[in-house]
Design brief:
75% helix; mainly alpha; Tscrpt_reg_AraC-type_HTH; 2 domains; single chain; globular; Arc Repressor Mutant, subunit A; 222 residues
Length: 222
């Protein structure tokens, strides 16, 4: 612990800042887990924890905003506002700690997304639509209708620049988000499936196993 700071001490640790720059989400999660254990031991005040998360949101937004990318910033503003309201609505430390893990995971996705932004205007429009609507049902048809582009053209542009199909990219992104929710919330597998826009829990489990090699239940139990 760093003495003298009432707020989250990890905010002031250079190591944490470096991990954010490297987007090392695995090591960040390890540090967060240790921090959460300490917070539980000292019974950290809920209002103080909310303030910590407001501060972390500001830090993460600032880091991503330094990229000065308008496509990124549009998505980020919507996510920031959503998390801001969710932080305010949390009722206990457990809910806030679960939300903290989700916040770091989602902002990590932003860093990955920024690395994918190219000088191809059409591809950026497709990526923006996918990331904004990742917690909804997405298909080639819905992208086509929303962006007024033909499905064959979307598939061609995406595969040419990203090296994978649109639907494989969407599935991988959804499963990564599902892993965060399974690890950090008490939502049921069916609830996670519905949240991420899968047809049903069977479809979700099949997609999850294809990407990770195991079922959602096995992942949660680990």
């Amino acid at each position: 612990m760093i003495e003298g700071f009432i707020t989250d001490y990890s905010i002031f640790i250079p190591e944490f800042d470096a991990l954010l720059d490297m987007n090392d989400i695995e090591e960040i999660n390890r540090l967060i887990e240790n921090k959460h254990k300490y917070e539980q031991e000292v019974e950290k005040n809920v209002e103080d924890k909310k303030i910590d998360l407001f501060i972390w949101q500001g830090i993460l937004v600032r880091k991503i905003s330094q990229a000065k990318n308008m496509v990124m910033n549009t998505i980020m503003h919507e996510t920031y506002n959503k998390f801001y309201q969710r932080i305010k609505a949390c009722r206990n430390l457990k809910e806030l700690q679960a939300l903290e893990k989700e916040i770091f995971s989602v902002y990590s996705d932003f860093v990955i997304y920024y690395s994918e932004v190219t000088d191809n205007y059409t591809l950026n429009r497709i990526l923006k639509h996918i990331h904004i609507n990742i917690e909804s049902y997405i298909s080639l048809q819905t992208i086509s209708e929303e962006l007024n582009l033909s499905r064959p053209y979307i598939s061609l542009v995406f595969k040419e620049h990203m090296g994978v199909t649109v639907m494989d990219y969407i599935t991988n992104l959804k499963i990564n988000r599902a892993k965060t929710l399974l690890a950090t919330t008490t939502q049921s597998i069916m609830e996670v499936s519905e949240l991420l826009g899968f047809h049903d829990s069977s479809h979700f489990c099949k997609a999850f196993k294809k990407v990770t090699g195991g079922t959602p239940r096995e992942y949660r139990n680990r």
